[in-house]
Write a structure and sequence with these properties.
414 residues; alpha/beta; 16 helices; binds nicotinamide-adenine-dinucleotide
Length: 414
Amino acid sequence: VNWPYEDVRVIVVTDGERILGLGDQGTSGMGIPVGKLSLYTACAGIHPSTTLPITLDVGTNNKKLLNDPLYLGHPHPRITGEEYDDFVDEFIVAVTKRFPKAVIQFEDFANHNAFRLLSKYRNSICTFNDDIQGTASVTVAGILASLRLTGGKLRDHKYLFLGAGEAGIGIADLLVSSMKEEGVSTRKARQTCWFVDSKGLVVASRDDLAEHKLDYAHEHEPMTSFLEAVKELQPTAIIGVSGQPQTFTKEIVEEMARLNEQPLVFALSNPTSKAECTAEQAYSWSDGRAIYASGSPFDPVTMPDGRTLVPGQGNNSYIFPGVGLGVTTVGAKRVTDSMFLAAAKALALQVTEEDLALGRVYPPLTKIRDVSAFIAAAVAQIAYDENLATEPRPYNLLAYIKEQMYQPDYLSFV
Ligand code: NAD
């Protein structure tokens, strides 16, 4: 009611339950929708007046906030079950009626709600979950670019994840989709992805597994240590999405470097303080052979031999602004997994030989507007291919998309 703009195209919504790796922040999580929408503007030229940040106040279980007299939200424990679902439903009905052209990005919901809400709404409205699908896309892009250094195809690798939440399962699902395009069966593709969660290796005999982990619960003896799992399974890639800092220890990275000429070490947990290992650690523990990416930025590292290695930042801000730009430009009715796969491939194609020579599996962020436009064109093309676009196809999709992008300068304001 209080929002003065009618033509809202991008909404980012959170309920504040799992903010970054920081946990339940209640309504103080609002910085996330605001920040993500700023990235839409900065990275993909989405006009700020077409963006709307939303925080659903469903309470908080954060005791510190509940006891803080200055806490801005309703000071009660989180509502759950039917009451929560009804509230979210009411929000979805209202927001799609009021802003029918908007894509709705779910952000930083706890995983017991994130997977459920995604499968509930993905086939009926224009929505996606960035923590699951955006993270998956940026990580698969980094892995695709890494293949140019390691050789082989996605199916030739073995991926061991630390953390089996939204990010981890989302990445594995997109890897599986991509391998299926290469002609690998679903069963075989899933066999390349292994998980260790807070209770140990995710295996079929465990009876404590949440539903989203079941596809990756393979037959194996239970194991509790990640290092033991590395020794036993001999992965080519370790992917940290646990929110637990310093869990890729020296021993683990050394073991990866013993097993592989160029091990993939992706320490994706945010913020920087939560990374599973730093860039310097990954490089120094592997004699500069690790292909390292992190979720938050790390400075370049100069090795004793004089080489300077530049860590790539596997952050989903490479993906969601471009996806949103593509989806809104062509008025796509849905956001599909094939769009995220197309986005991953488009991003990987933007990695140059010079980037790879520096050890960087993502293009520099200074190129982000061009990268986002390129991703948007790939996503828009999928919308046409899948019959989901509602706008006529422009002759030159990429040029048209670039024309739509808002330039944050004085002249474009007048
Ligand atoms: P989540 O809560 O859904 O999942 C976390 C997982 O980690 C759970 O499976 C949990 O069991 C596991 N875990 C917790 N402690 C563990 C331990 N000691 N050992 C092994 N596993 C453990 O969270 P999520 O959305 O998957 O995010 C996880 C992390 O990834 C966060 O730090 C988040 O910031 C980061 N992330 C990064 C990006 C990016 O762009 N780089 C995107 C999304 C998420």
